[in-house]
Amino acid sequence: MRANAAIRSVSLLGFILLWTVAAWLGGDPTVLPSPADLVKPFLSELSSGMLLYSLGVTVFRVIAAFCLAMSLGIVLGLLMGTNPALDRWLDPWLVVFLNLPALVLIVLCYLWIGLNETAAIAAVTLNKIPNVTTIIREGARALDPDLKAMAQVYRMRRSVYLRHVVLPQLAPFITGAARSGMAVIWKIVLVVEFLGRSNGIGFQIHLYFQLFDVAMVLVYSLSFIGFMLVVEWLLLQPAERRIRAWRLA
């Protein structure tokens, strides 16, 4: 564990060093500011409260869309993976939504629902459900038929079967969908905020993009990236190791 933390720290320090060298070679902080040039604007936004407020708004949208997409995607994927007839009917729909550009869905949700919070979260959720469904469907197709037969022989209740037989087998697929989902969802949330919201990290990036302020764009972008790295290292990766532990026992 400590070795992994040390490797990550050295890797990040290497990235910061490379960034510093590139900024020094460029010689123009308005185009590529160095990490040191971001300290003052970062502290200014932090002390004003705008950075924390924007971060909180974006995190709320990410969590809301993530929970909705994972819940609906798991249910739909499990149904399609265990019911071939339903899979044949819904597979064309899944292909359509998998290939529908995120930007199109975002614009359509804003046009149909309006420039509001419901449209923003709906756009992000609809973009992610097909990916979660696809991953879970493949996991459901790979369920062990012998374990299913055993459950039928012992007349196991459906709730017990789902909890103790199905979910442990789907756990790697669920964690994979969760990790990839979180990585994709927050990026789509920023686009949603960039196009049609009046707050959040994406809105702030849009504002400073219009002002050609590279430093502030980097401050807000890196702040949210840093938050997501903390979530990845402290929540998602430990949860994945715990879920997969039974396979290594």
Can you walk me through this structure?
It contains 10 helices and no strands. The chain has 249 residues and is mostly helical. It has a domain at 55-196 and 229-248: MetI-like (MetI-like fold). The longest helix has 39 residues, at 158-196. The relative contact order is 0.12.
Structure annotation, total helices: 10
Assign the CATH superfamily of one domain: MetI-like
CATH class of one domain: Mainly Alpha
Strand percentage lies at under 5%
**Average predicted confidence as pLDDT:** 85
* Proportion of residues in helical segments: over 70%
Order of helices and strands: HHHHHHHHHH
Tell me how many strands there are: 0
Task: Set down the secondary structure blueprint.
Blueprint: H1 2-26, H2 39-48, H3 50-82, H4 84-99, H5 102-113, H6 117-141, H7 145-153, H8 158-196, H9 201-210, H10 214-248
Family: Belongs to the binding-protein-dependent transport system permease family.
Transmembrane segments: 57-81, 93-113, 217-236
Protein name: ABC transporter permease
